[in-house]
Specification:
The protein is of the alpha+beta class. The chain contains 5 helices and 9 strands.
Length: about 270
Amino acid sequence: MKVTKDVKIVFSLVTLIFIGLIACALIKYTSVRQKQAVTAQNKITEANLQTDKAQIAQVAAAKILATAKIVAATKLADQTKTVAALNVTTDNSSNTKIIINNEVNATSKSTSNSTSNSKSNSTPNTNTFQDITSNYIPIQNNTYNFTFMYPNFLTLVGTNPNNSGYSFQTADGTTFLSLDIYSSNNTTDIQYQKDMKTFNAVDISYSTNWYLISYLDDDGDTVYYKDYIDTSAQEEYTEIFTCPTIQVAYYQPYIDRFSSGFFSENN
């Protein structure tokens, strides 16, 4: 009887252990399933979020596309209007040019015996120049004790401080004459070599105490540069005549006098 009782006890213990194991397995299985369910739900939620984002992006893209189409249509309309306006302007300009050309042709025919262009109009003939330069105007310089004679086709426009020079020009402001006086220890030869190199000049005349060179300035005008050095007084005199290159022949009578020596207007 005692054995039977012990068997029953062992069987009960085994049964309890088995039931405990089954319960643990059920609990573990339930936990795993819950985790799997949570993971699946999270994936579904993430997928839904991605779908929402995609839908939002599609809506935004559709709005941008619609706006771009509106802007493009507006620009096209503006360009069409501009082209139309330009066509009208071009037509008007063409008509205007035709009218102007007709007027120019008529004017040209009526003036065919006169000067053919504006440049020749602005350059009088040599005879006119000879008449203009028949008289010279004197300037007495008491500071340096000399009289400077300048042609009357020029106007005095400026005097240097202490009477150390003068500036002249024509009425149209295209031709200039200047006289400048300053202290100098240079010799004629040294200054001559320096100026020839500086201005890339052409030699015209050279003497013991003065020289004359010529060159083109940055504007293409012809420059006649005359320099006189008084070594005893340590003074240097520069006389510069500048005129448009196309008018050199016109001014040649004055240039010849200018080239004959320093202060040649006194001769």
